[in-house]
């Protein structure tokens, strides 16, 4: 039986501790190459939890990302992303996100928090959508959320780039964060 609560007419997940399922988490990013081609990457080493509170606006989110787990479909690019030019995983192996404010309206909301990346902490505002809930075949209650934001990577010291002969930059400064996660309710 699913435990829910209603914020008429929307049913949201019940208050309590919900842990991110790393097998069903897609924490990714999209940048542009030559200012044209979308290049996607994701992190496979992600863990975190959400404390859904009553009232829901008192909820908290914390996430840790293993930066060495970056995967963009190209080994050379991934190695470059792990280097000091970008994530510098030797000095900064993880990135963290800790919420500072949650606002909910129906099945959408905003989670504002501090993203620490490469030793720099800056605020990020995530647009969040509650996609639904289900009980898995083993009796675990799950809640599914999507989120996105756009950031300027240079705000976190990720400044490596190359000027193109015709003008413009090889790698976009603007990066879109895209997140899809399943959370499992803890007893």
What does this structure look like?
The protein has 187 residues and is mainly β. It has a single domain (15-185), classed as Lipid/polyisoprenoid-binding, YceI-like (Lipocalin). It is 4% helix and 59% strand. It has one helix spanning 75-82, and strands at 4-7, 10-13, 16-33, 37-43, 46-52, 60-66, 70-71, 94-105, 108-117, 120-135, 141-152, 174-185. The strands form 2 sheets. It has an 8-stranded antiparallel beta barrel. The chain has a two-stranded antiparallel sheet with strand order 1-2.
List strands and helices in order, with pairings.
Layout: E1 4-7, E2 10-13, E3 16-33, E4 37-43, E5 46-52, E6 60-66, E7 70-71, H1 75-82, E8 94-105, E9 108-117, E10 120-135, E11 141-152, E12 174-185
Domains, number: 1
* Overall average residue pLDDT: 91
CATH top level label: Mainly Beta
CATH superfamily: Lipid/polyisoprenoid-binding, YceI-like
Radius of gyration: 18 Å
Low-confidence stretches: none
Span of the ends, CA to CA: 13 Å
The SS-based structural class is mainly beta
Number of helices: 1
Side by side, the strands of the main sheet go 3-5-6-8-9-10-11-12
Rough outline: elongated
Please state the second-level CATH architecture: Beta Barrel
Report the helical percentage. Answer: under 10%
Question: What is the third-level CATH name, the topology?
Answer: Lipocalin
